[in-house]
């Protein structure tokens, strides 16, 4: 009797253990010790337009990628991929996805590697290997997503950091990325290869300006300054913004406000050259005070309660989506995009290539991002592309053009797609 009781107990224990093993195998646990409850699911439908859904796509270049999509109900539609920038998310495209889908497209936008609900975003550290965040691997991410959704060709739209990535996709694989819309950050084209190095008696090379000298020159200004991209490459940038003294939600509110058309001081225009004196004309969110982090830099421009209440393009409930996502993950995954990667040297294999598919550029008329790199837009229009179809600067929009003026942005994209069907 005693033996049977012990046997029954062991059998029960083995069954319980087997059930637990099966359950773990079926659960999307990413790391030892992490509870299933800690893994975020899709975004709530309550924060999305009715036509947009949130879901996950598995095995995208090693990622479980979070994707928003619209127009998915009808198979066989032409595809439009939208790539966000910093500090944004797939959510940044929420108000343009529906109108473009309504015109007959399947529109999808991922949380890019290192952002939002795409796997691993919550575990990115400053000391991590930067190679996964390099441009070549991010092109592969986009190719893998397009392939996972079973498309052979796609139109691509990119904003901010997503703009040069979209440009790279079109440059590297024009057979797949058949048109490209770039926004707010002109794509600079592939890096050049050294030329003439095989000469028996090489000519003396002309002295080359040190591209990093400008940062010392900025620091020597009165008051001393620094460029935001250099700041974003530092170890302290993530902590400064993630745990901002004013709180993360307030930090994001001030940052988004200051780079929008709502901040009336934004009056962008071309700069004469890449010099410290010219860069000093940029607003403080681009060329910062040397002794301040970004949280302290934007704090004085925090909009009033009345201004926040009047902000229809980013109501507080929408901003809460950003503050909750970045509150969980921090900013390091996005900041790694400013740091370069050892693998970026491989981009020289595209030296001399141009974007040879139809292309266009859309930005806000109040967006300094168009001009912060002197001459970049002119080079995009004349040298980097061969089928360029125009630059559009949208009234009433700053840096966040697809959020500030979604109707105008959608119309321009649809007109471009219709010309290149």
Overview of the molecule:
The protein has 421 residues and is α/β, with parallel strands linked by helices. The protein has two domains: 233 residues, Rossmann fold (3-Layer(aba) Sandwich); 122 residues, no CATH class. It has 16 helices and ten strands. The strands form two sheets. Strands 1-2-4-3-5-6-9-10 form an eight-stranded mixed beta sheet. The protein has a two-stranded antiparallel sheet with strand order 7-8. Helix 2 packs across helix 16 and helix 3 packs across helix 4. It starts with a helix and ends with a helix.
Number of structural domains: 2
Tertiary shape: globular
Q: What is the CA–CA distance across the termini?
A: 80 Å
Note the run of SSEs as H and E. HEEEHEHEHEHEHHHHEHHHHEHEHH
Spatial order of the strands forming the largest sheet: 1-2-4-3-5-6-9-10
CATH fold call of the largest domain: Rossmann fold
CATH structural architecture of the largest domain: 3-Layer(aba) Sandwich
Question: What does the largest sheet look like?
Answer: 8 strands, mixed
CATH class of the largest domain: Alpha Beta
User: Uncertain regions: pLDDT < 50 for 5+ in a row?
Assistant: 1-37
Could you report the average pLDDT, rounded to the nearest whole number? 91
Number of helices: 16
Q: Which structural class is indicated by helix and strand composition? A: alpha/beta
Radius of gyration of CA atoms, rounded to a whole number: 24 Å
Q: Find the CATH superfamily of the largest domain.
A: Alpha/Beta hydrolase fold, catalytic domain
| DSSP summary, beta strand count | 10
Kindly estimate the percentage of residues that lie in beta strands according to DSSP: 5-15%
Helix content bin: 25-40%
